Amino acid sequence: MIVKKMPILQGFPDFETVKKLTRNRVFSEHFAPLFYDIETTGLSRNSTFLYLIGAVAYEENNWQMYQWMIKNEDEESELLKTFSEFLQKFSCTIQYNGDSFDQPYLEARYQLHGLPSPFKEFPSLDLYRELKPLKGLLKLSRMNQPSMEAFLGITDRVYCDGGACIRLYKQFASGKKPEASEIVMGHNQEDLLGLGKIFSMLSYLALFEEDYEALDCEIQDDQLTFTIDMNYDLPVEFSNHSEEFYITGQKNRVRLLVKSQNGRLKQYYSNYKDYDYIPSEDTAIPKTLSACMDKKLRRPARKETCYTWFPVTEDFLKNPLKQKTYLKHCLPYYLSSLK
């Protein structure tokens, strides 16, 4: 088995940032994350095998990268045992699409070799699943790792893709191309570094989780501008819009521009199934109140019709707490309208 260890000196988020961005996830108080990525000879868990595991761990005040690559299929059991023992030092795993591919694949291979799975009741954070809500906001055409890296402006990859790695590994394992091991491990290294950079995109989720503060609000003509403090630095600036609003973010500031009508704003409610929309009044009311109304005057509210109106007063413009309440109700609707 080929074993490598090297420090990661740049391009990976610092440990406190990793801890901060995972604080809302369910992990133990002892926070010791392990980033990992695997390389296999195919997608099938039964007819292919695992030949390389790469991992990044925080040790001695620095991120360290580990790689274990076997020389042939007969060493797979040894590779699995090595990783299982290594995993015991950590409190959780972080991967990209790991809940759907990496971990189930590994568990199947552990079972095939008659080995206990090291993942039992072991928390994991799948960045693919966590970052799915960002697809519309950040105008992501796809959610695979290359697309996420492209959004972040990562263009410095020099090694081949995963598909080509399978062919190169087989050439290495057969002895036809011994130098191919460096290319395959280089690809895995780039995947791991990309994983660290993609991790920083969790900061955008603060908009969906109310993990921000309203700083101020200004009105000009029929447009209100909210300034939001994100508490996190955004890795890349972004902008997006719909007919009702425009949103832009850079560093730790997000600005939301919302149209008003005659000095009034719509306040949306997420529990739209509990409301009826009254077309003649252009407002939604709880079904507990609309039940006594003629059915011809009401209709079940939808996401886009579940709102009431309120006047934009001087008190609202000067009160960040009231602005935060507005954002709490309305920002989820605005973000969900972006496709």
Structure description:
By secondary structure, the protein is of the alpha+beta class. The mean pLDDT is 93. The chain has helices spanning 15-21, 76-87, 98-112, 127-131, 134-137, 145-151, 162-173, 180-199, 287-290, 314-318, 320-336; strands at 2-8, 33-40, 50-59, 62-69, 92-95, 124-126, 213-220, 223-229, 238-241, 245-250, 253-259, 264-268, 275-278, 283-286, 299-300, 307-311. It starts with a strand and ends with a helix. The strands form four sheets. A six-stranded mixed sheet has the order 1-4-3-2-5-6, with helices on both faces. Strands 7-8-11-10-9 form a five-stranded antiparallel sheet. A three-stranded antiparallel sheet has the order 14-13-15.
